[in-house]
Amino acid sequence: MRTPSRRLRVLLAVFSTALALPAALLAPQTATAADPSGGGPKVTSSADGIALTVPSAGNAPGYTLAIATGQLTLVTRRSGTDVLSTADGGTGGLRFRTGDTWQHATKVTGWSWKSGVLTLTAATTADGATVAARITPASDRYQLDWDVEGVEPDRLGLAYDLASAGHWYGHGEAETAQGGPGTDQPWPLDSGEVVHPSFGPASYNMVDPFWYTSRSTGLRVDTGHVMDVAINEGKDGLGRFDVDSADTYKATVFVESAPLEVYRDYVGIVGKPAKSDATYEQYAKPVWNSWAQFYTNVDQAKVLDYATDLHDAGLEGHTVQLDDKWESNYGNLTFDSKAYPDPKAMARKIHDLGFDFGLWVTLWINLDSDNYQFAVDHGYLLKDAADTSKPCTVTWWNGTAGIIDLANPDAKAWYTGRVKALMSDYGIDGLKFDTRFFDDKCAPHDGYKPTDYQRLGTELADEFDLQGVGIRVHWNSTAHQAGFVTRQVDKGTGWESLRASVSQNLAISTIGYPFVTTDMIGGSGGQPAPTKDVLVRWAQSASLMPLMYSSTSPVDTIDVTTGQKVTYDQ
Fold first, then answer.
1. CA 560 to centroid of chain Cα atoms
2. Which value, in Å, is the radius of gyration of the alpha carbons in the chain?
3. What is the largest CA-CA distance in the chain?
4. Percent of the chain at pLDDT above 90?
5. Who's near 386: CB < 8 A, 6+ residues apart?
6. Are 256 and 217 in contact (CB under 8 A)?
7. Which pLDDT band, with edges at 50, 70 and 90, does 90 fall under?
8. Concatenated DSSP letters for 534-565?
């Protein structure tokens, strides 16, 4: 018997920790009581600074916020130790962009402590501009709200000295200089270089504006705008959290005795699921999806051969899903009659083999779809942000399209009606939603915000069985509370992508989405078929994740880069 490889031992050790996370992170929250002595926060000043001291209360350890007045810097201390510090020097902690130039707060010019709020004013590096900040302390956190006066910036940001807080976690699926999120997901974040300029509620990535540290501090940015997030970019040791807006910058800084308590503080704000929406069988057995097996070179005969081979080899699963490239055109919601001459017979055969049958769907309607002009004429598509008299068109991986406006009740009813009719007509048991519900190029429906579309997407998906492959909704309380399975972003087929799938499982779960599945066992991404070792190790690691999402058949597959058949041994 072979001794397990070092790589496998590391994977098992990591997942021993991962298995403990959902139960621990979803444990009941503990309320923090007021200080029984009647004491509260106190402010003192000296020649070079201001100190806001918050006493311990209940489970909260208490902290001091030391504010340097010569160069506005906020240093959070717990038990006399620095646990989080804004950047100083040329970067500045409170920073803003105007005229394509970054400026920052400098000398504190005034302050007051009134009604539990510490108000600061500071000069800046920009002529005629000042910063006005308001700090509202509580026993386990403080609220930091600030504005720029005298000029009109286009971005406001906070910058932190990463090392002051130990290691950094959170964020979700990270775009990185090393190929993330598809082939890289640093854990901790500061061990790599996160460069994520389109970090926002419309992102296809699973992200939330929440970060926490090994020194038990955390940051939540309360915004519905796109952010530009950089963590250790160019190995500079800084975390920069910039918001693409001139609105008041609203941040909550958590100060606790353990990282788990910071997580509980965060889910106390955004909410958590009461239970998973996936069935027991969807946890107990894998789903088999056609994507990495065939990509878009798929048809009825290939799907049936795939399902039959899995069945005959004794490879169990609860569902066979037909992924991308079944529609006649994207948005038609009709089968391509040449590739799928008898979809009803296909569904019956899959059911006879003991599988449920699932289908990939999207809210994108391509311009060449039969439904596109109908949707335009009826006002069913999101409008263009620059010109709301015309529909918004966006580019995605399968062409140029409009997006169904879920805030329009008639549009939602039209879309869901067509999907339900499709499912009823062809014996389809559930859906894989693979889409954006909003795009930053588009204008929200009157009375709605971009973040509302994550809620609307959540509500739409809740009407259907997601078959254990989940959906990618985030950045709002409805998504946090829905109990959906969360599907990671597509990965490559090499060892680095397997590693990314492990740390990404942790990253997504610890921003408040505990039911995570890797996309997909063995990877995809149009790369060569995985080697036997990668496929086996990926299956082993996924067996320790909440759910298993499979595509590459261990019986045989096709190497998409060569077109050659790949057969794995027994």
1. 29
2. 26
3. 82
4. 92
5. none
6. yes
7. confident
8. HHHHHHHHHTTSS--EE-S-SSEEEETTTTEE
Token pair for 531? 């080697």
Q: What is the pLDDT of residues 147-161, one digit of tens each?
A: 999 999 999 999 999
Distance CA 79, CA 81 (A): 6
Residue showing tokens 């290691």: 167
CA–CA separation, 85 and 72 (whole Å): 11
What's the whole-model pTM score? 0.92
Phi, psi of 6 (to 5 degrees): -60, -40
For 395, residues 6+ apart whose C-beta sits below 8 A from its C-beta are 401
DSSP of 361-376 = E-SEEETTSHHHHHHH
Residue 9: CB atoms within 10 Å = 11
Quote the mean pLDDT of the chain.
93
CA distances from 81 to 78, 93, 148, 193, 322 (A): 5, 19, 31, 26, 55
Give the mean model confidence (pLDDT) for residues 250-267: 98
Q: Are strands 516-517 and 486-487 parallel, antiparallel or unpaired?
A: parallel
- Which of the four pLDDT bands, split at 50, 70 and 90, describes residue 21? very low
Q: Length of the chain, please?
A: 570
**Main-chain dihedrals φ then ψ at residue 20, nearest 5 degrees:** -80, -20
